[in-house]
Amino acid sequence: MSASRRVLLGGGLLFVALLLAGAVPRIRRRQALESRTREVAAAPLVTVVTVHRAPPSGELQLPGTVQPMREAALYARSSGYVRRFHADIGQRVRAGQLLAEIETPELDQELAQARASLGQVHAAHSLAQTSLERWRSMVKDSAATRQELDEREAAFSAAAANVAAAEANVRRLQELQGFGRVTAPFAGTVTARNVEVGQLVSPQQGSGSRPLFVLVQADTERVMINVPEAAAGEVKPGAAAAVSVATLGDAKFAARVARTAGALDAATRTMLTEVDVPNPTGVLLPGTYAQVRLAVRHATPGVLLPANALLIRSSGPQVALVRDGRVHFVKVALGRDLGTEIEVLSGLDEGATVVVNPSDEVNEGTAVRVAKAEKP
Q: b/e map of 221-240 (b: 16 or more CB within 10 Å)?
């Protein structure tokens, strides 16, 4: 082979080597890019949200049921027949107003018998007193012994005791006879009437018995709410509140916290609280479902997490964080439940990116594609 050919062959080999040296890295980079593209294309698409810190003061909204300030079920205290009733459902009555009259013939006869018995024991008492005075005179004259006088004194004491017992029995029957007039114990509204003229009533009470009337006082209503543990220390008696009812539109009723249980229920971790709301017009009906809003302030507020980003697992509540394009599950400690958002007290920092409604494809370390973040 001539020298010129060898030079040409060497130059060709050198060109090929240089070409390969430049092409191989490009091929590798392209393969890596294609692999990454395939990996990204295969990664599940997730929607994320950036969490923010809760404001130090806010509004706590809790459900409750409107209840009357007073409610009384009125039962019969004596057996008899209803002669007439003077109040019906929806009627406002005064304290002491007559609601119904009950005829008590058997009780009337018992009272008459008791009064007759009282007359008998009064007569026996008078006779015992007269006899005692005579025997005292006879003892002074030595016509009777001291033993006989003691017997007459004991008979007089027994007669006096019989009088007291008979008088007490008469008073008892008179009181029972007075219960034939059913009156209102306080001013209010009759919400139930379970009597009819001629109906037999008795003082028996039990699971099958019904009261004659149900009376409620609703000038001031009360709403019982369960304050969660995280806000229990912020709710104090006297604090302002607002009560709203869905059926009354946007109307809000000024209210105040009347009292709290002062302790948490071990089962629910909530504190029973009574909120009183004036109801002079009677527009708030007892039994109505209501919402109570309370202004609360937190010294160390947590971050707010969308409720649909929370995962409840056997090991406790968790959230799916997205860092560097991969998912990492972390445990969190929860605070207030605000409905659409939940307060997280620890385990999650402000500004963290969390997955909303994570699917079963999202596991620890899974690479994900991030969709446009939703506003919390």
A: bbbebbbbebbbebbeeebe
Q: pLDDT at residue 147 above 60?
A: yes
More confident site: 8 or 62: 62
* Range scoring the smallest mean pLDDT among 38-42, 92-96, 200-204, 241-245: 38-42
The residue whose two tokens read 């698409």 is 45
Q: Give me Rg for the CA atoms of the chain.
A: 44
SS3 label, residue 17: helix
Q: 362 vs 181, which has greater pLDDT?
A: 181
What are the angstrom distances between the C-alpha of 200 and each of 182, 195, 254? 14, 9, 46
SS3 (DSSP) at 141: coil
- Between CA 78 and CA 103 the distance in angstroms is 9
pLDDT digits (tens, 9 = 90+) for 224-255: 999 888 778 888 899 899 999 988 888 899 99
| Per-residue pLDDT tens digits for 324-349 | 888 888 898 887 676 788 888 888 88
The C-alpha atoms of residue 323 and residue 346 are separated, in whole angstroms, by: 18
Distance, CA of 191 to CA of 244 (rounded, Å): 23
Place of tokens 């959230």: 319
What are 81's two structure tokens?
């027949």
Q: Who contacts 253 (Cβ-Cβ below 8 Å, separation ≥6)?
A: 242, 243, 244, 277, 278, 279, 284
pTM listed for this prediction: 0.58
Contacts of residue 352, Cβ cutoff 8 Å, sequence gap at least 6: 50, 51, 303, 321
- Nearest alpha carbon to residue 323 among 352, 360, 348, 290: 352
**Cβ-based neighbour number of residue 253 at 10 Å:** 20
Distance CA 221, CA 243 (A): 11
What element of type H or E holds 327?
strand 326-331
| Residue where the block lists tokens 């005064």 | 94
What is the C-alpha separation between 339 and 59, in angstroms, rounded? 12
Confidence grade of residue 22 (pLDDT, cut at 50, 70, 90): low
Q: Tokens for 353? A: 């990116």
Which residues is 313 bridged to in the sheet?
316
